[in-house]
Amino acid sequence: MTFSAAERDAMLRALELAGTPGVPLGPNPRVGCVLLADDGSVVAEGHHRGAGTPHAEANALSRAGAAARGTTAVVTLEPCNHTGRTGPCARALVEAGVRRVVYAQADPNAVAAGGAQTLRAAGVEVEGGLLAEDAQELNRVWSFAMVHGRPFVTWKFAATLDGRSAAADGTSRWVSSSAARRDTHRLRALCDTMLVGTGTIAADDPLLTVRDDDGVALPHQPLRAVMGERELDPGHRVFNADAETLRLRTRDPHTALAALAARDRQHVFLEGGPTLAAAFLRAGLVDEIVAYVAPLLLGAGTNAVADLGITTISAALRPTVTDVTVLPAEGADQPNVRLTMHCAPAEQES
What we know:
This protein is α/β, with parallel strands linked by helices. It is built from ten helices and 15 strands. Helix 3 links the parallel strand 3 (72-77) and strand 4. It is elongated, with a radius of gyration of 23 Å.
């Protein structure tokens, strides 16, 4: 694969466009496109702004008009090859007379893939793989959902140094610091689904919304999903009008994720109690762990996770630590440590 310096610079710009703040985090990928003239100058730029809006290539082509003919299209994702709410980008590039297409990430979506082949068949020069890892990281959750056919699952929990999420009398406010709780809302806002079990609803009556530093709910809220067969009082706060709530009347994590995937949900933020966490861990359905560790010791109380069926150290789950961040002390709080860890996904069931 041979790429010019201008194409590399254009791909960096396309990645920047794809990451434009305010673009919805799903269900579509974030994509940027830059059209280059033969001398390497920029003819037009575009990016996708969310489901139902023009794709990045179409956005750039419309800005370029007739000047698109003979250009090189530099795109962060292989141009799509299917008709959905908008037409196929591969065909639009051909009709616009684009001479060459350079893309970063191959499209992992089986429904939309094949754009490169369509372009080549029409006589367009095509090269892929430029800054592919950067593009994959930009859409890591979407890419995971396309490849594995289920949402990416982030399990978040807060615990003391000895792994307790609550004291022996059930009190848990506040195991984590105020800085950690604010950080949790930041992470919630990156997901499209908040998932807890019926036990958490019955015991804690959480609101499960995303709020800013002043406690005000954000305009866009993730889906609140409540998993389990227990009947719940409709007066619980999770059933109010602040956000949509879905009852998943199952105890099986595979079934729950399949139901969420059918609703185009791609990133689940697992905030349930130790029983729900253990169910997902035992099923191999936790992909990322975010743990807030507070400098407290209880010696007794509720464990952060229930029995995993592990009886020997050699069988321990060993997630890979990807980040360690100290959240500074505020007021009477002590610093908390945020550990972010990656778990290898289990093989997809047939």
